Amino acid sequence: MPDDTKALPDAGGTRDTLLADALSERYLAYAMSTIMARSLPDVRDGLKPVHRRLLWAMHQLKLDPAAGFKKCARIVGDVMGKYHPHGDAAIYDAMVRLAQDFAARYPLVEGQGNFGNIDGDNAAAMRYTEARLTEVAQAMLQAIDENTVDFRATYDGEEQEPMVLPAAFPNLLANGANGIAVGMATSIPPHNAGELCGAALTQLQVFRDRKLTLAEVALGAPGSARAEFLDASLAPMLAEVKGPDFPTGGVLVEPAAAMREAYRIGRGGFRVRAKWEKVPAKNGTWQIIVSEIPYQVAKAKLIEQIAALLEEKKLPLLGDIRDESTDIVRLVLEPKSRAVDPAMLMETLFRATDLETRLPLNMNALDAERTPRVMGLPEVVWSWVEHRHVVLVRRTEHRLAAIARRLEILDGYLIVYLNLDEVIRIVREEDKPKEALMATFELTELQANAILDMRLRALRKLEEMEIRKEHRKLSAEQKGLQGLMKSEPKRWEAIGAEIEATRVKFGDGALGKRRTETGAALPAITVDENAFVEREPITIILSEKGWIRAQKGHIAEDAELRFKEGDSLHTWAHAQSTDRIVFFATNGKAYTLKAEAIPRGRGDGQPVRLLLDLTNEDTLLSMHVHAEGLRYLVATTDGRGFLVAGEELLAEKRTGKQVLMPEPGREALLCIPAEGDTVAVVGENRKLLLFPLDQLPQMARGRGVQLQSYKDGGLSDAKVFTRKEGLSWRNGGGRMRVETDLQPWRGNRAGAGRPPPHGFPKSNRFE
To answer: Which residues of this protein are annotated with the site description Interaction with DNA (predicted)?
Structure first.
């Protein structure tokens, strides 16, 4: 059978290719589409395609600031049908963000209706809301009909859309941008337009002082002085730009050196805190009023976060929080008591909640050649200035062409007035008046058409004077514009005047006033980390059969405790809810539990074996609250032991930590605090020995050294005490006895010892 696939044309045929190559080719096309046509803004106008198309569609609908509003559904429909073939929800969401004064520093859309709020509530449906352009958006579109930018065909080829806007307003930095593409992202916080215009004028001054030309600093020019010029302009620009200016205000607390480096390389971040003040209340108390919260933090979620931490008792200095906001943010924070330091309270909130956030800076945008790059502040501003130069040149060329056309027509009109009778004769008698006029008076086709289109009333003497006056005026304008085109310094001077006008218009007044405070140093406040967790006293009770529980408060020593039938008290300890509890077992292992993990209540508690990895053969010997710097004496039943630091007993795992290693057939006997200077040991042979504590080595783990020598048996008990205070024990009647004359039993470690004093307990134990 013949191979028909070889005869197929290329358009409908098949070809063999590696799957990896096919996937990479298609994924690269998708990635480039996402980067270029969706996620990254253009450095010249600071807009993504969807935003640019929204403004252009509203301009086409003549929704300027002086016009009436139109339904957002109509606008979204035009954008989706003509320019942006994506979902209406995505287009409307983009439009809503442009209208939110808490999201955009300088809104490009003026909304009428519910466009959401700072609590995070969504806008109403597009059929209920209306919109029109703002003064800022009008500046972005200024002179777009004067051939200032290039246009391209839309996706269906039926319309034209601008590739970039003229952008008489520094939108990229003024309103910021956020976007996630494939393999790259952008995050640019908003800035103050007045400061940006000041920075641009400062950069222009550096440009002039260095006597540079546009060709010398052009992007990609060989031997370009661009990098050196941009580095030199950073310092004077930072004298104007004080940092981001967020629409929600707040306090910028990022160090100046960190901000300088971030603006230099285009990457970094800014820490922003809520603005607050202490306000006196009744009866000598006070409150904290939060009037501004960080940018992009939803107020409702912030309150939920603080309330949740209050419920979890992780904000011990805060008593309550209330939301008294209207269209102005007002959060009321009440302290736990009037003795709380306000700065300390706010520091704990800054560390634990979104009252302080860090906003990233990643100035990744498409440059004039549509290449995605991370740029520093000087390059971003200069790219906008260069774009304004291109707009100026194209606008001037467009105006010169219009003037030349009009002057050509006016020259034709003047010929009419000089030869009025002959012109009338030609129009009345000639079959082809246009050709006759052109031949007789050497007119152009444009002039002949204009003359034939004149009205009779325009032939008055007064009209001739007006035409001559207009001709002189246009000739003077033409001469000025031609001089502008021939002189680059004059063009930069004109651009400087335009930027100054933008600064006056948008940098002054309520809209231009800086909202985010700057220059505030971080307060020198030391906060103990334990202040973030509420501490409360508890008592931990361990029974003989291994049931553990915690009770609120510190119970008295003679308090009556209840246990299950056949069970009794093994040991108990006073602790705080934030403490760590250390257990020591007969297998020589130490175990650690957080006090908050021990079950509370009036019941019997929970078997400790469910909390610790203990076998049925292992028994807990002791329980104590971990304290920094404390040492412990650990010993086995065969009379070996050593000192161990309390930190060495802490175990991170449920399986515990091996500390003491008994001989086969032997077990660990005790783990007691080593508070004193003398060790007392008593063997099963009822021999007592006292020796200095410093004769014991401190170890992390091991078998230890011999504490007392025995012919038979082993160690019965041990105790660490202070020799001056005497050795104490509890006799059979429960009374405490203290022996101060200890000379007969003093010796060295590993000695045999002597029989204990008369009255020593028959249990052979000190307690």
So the answer is: 48, 84, 86
Distance CA 129, CA 73 (A): 8
Amino acid 555: pLDDT? 87
d(C-alpha 677, C-alpha 746), whole Å: 13
Burial class (CB in 10 A: 0-12, 13-18, 19+), 5: exposed
Provide the β-strand partners of residue 584: 590, 622
- The one-letter amino acid at 477: E
Using CA atoms, how far residue 190 sits from 36, 237, 721, 729, 758, in Å, is 22, 16, 68, 75, 86
- State the burial class of residue 489 (Cβ atoms within 10 Å of its Cβ: 0-12, 13-18, 19+): exposed
Q: Which residues are catalytic?
A: 128
pLDDT at 522: 61
Report residue 478: phi and psi, to 5°: -60, -45
**Which residue in the block uniquely carries the two structure tokens 């909390």?**
611
302 in helix, strand or coil? helix
Residue 756 in tokens: 């204990």
Per residue, the 3-state secondary structure of 531-581, as one string, reads: HHCCCCEEEEEEECCCEEEEEECCCCCCCCCCCCCCCCEEEEEEEECCCEE
Instruction: Give yes or no for a contact between 323 and 317, defined as CB atoms under 8 angstroms apart.
Output: no
DSSP secondary structure, 653-669, as one string: STT-EE-B-PPTT--EE
Please tell me the distance from the alpha carbon of residue 118 to that of residue 291, in angstroms, as a whole number. 13
Residues 40/179, Cβ–Cβ less than 8 Å: yes
Tell which wins on pLDDT, 267 or 421. Answer: 267
pLDDT exceeds cutoff 90 at 602? no
Burial tier of 348 (Cβ tally within 10 Å: 0-12, 13-18, 19+)? buried
Q: What is the pLDDT of residues 389-403, one digit of tens each?
A: 999 999 999 999 999
- Provide the 10 A C-beta neighbour count for residue 536: 13
How far is residue 538's CA from residue 540's CA, in Å, rounded to a whole number?
7
Choose among 184, 186, 363, 169: nearest CA to 263. Answer: 363
Which two tokens mark 57? 């569609």
Q: Which secondary-structure segment (H or E) carries 204?
A: helix 193-209
Q: Which residue has the tokens 């021990």?
A: 598
**Alpha carbon distance 187, 268 (integer Å):** 10
Element (H, E) at 265: helix 256-265
C-alpha to C-alpha distance for 528 and 667, rounded to whole angstroms: 41
Rounded to an integer, what distance in angstroms lies between the CA atom of residue 90 and that of residue 71?
Answer: 17
Smallest CA-to-CA distance from 225 within 233, 237, 236, 217 is with: 217
Encode pLDDT of 17-51 as tens digits: 889 888 888 888 888 888 888 899 999 999 999 99
The C-alpha atoms of residue 443 and residue 465 are separated, in whole angstroms, by 21
Half-sphere exposure of 255 (CA within 13 A, CB side): 3
Please provide the average confidence, as pLDDT, over all residues in the chain. Answer: 90
Per the CB < 8 A criterion, the answer to whether 633 and 720 are in contact is: yes
Q: How many Å from the N-terminal Cα to the C-terminal Cα in the chain?
A: 104
To 10 degrees, what angle do helices 193-209 and 377-418 make? 80
Place of tokens 């230099």: 264
Within 8 A by CB and 6+ apart from 23, the residues are none
Structure-token pair, residue 749: 């470690």
Cβ contact 219:165 at 8 Å = no
Tokens of 458: 């325009």
Domains of the chain, start order: 33-169 (3.90.199.10), 275-354 (3.30.1360.40), 393-512 (1.10.268.10), 627-767 (2.120.10.90)
The predicted structure's pLDDT at residue 223: 66
DSSP three-state, residue 399: helix
Residue given tokens 């000087």 in the structure block: 378
What residues pair up with 681 in beta bridges, in sequence order? 689, 718
Record the pTM: 0.72
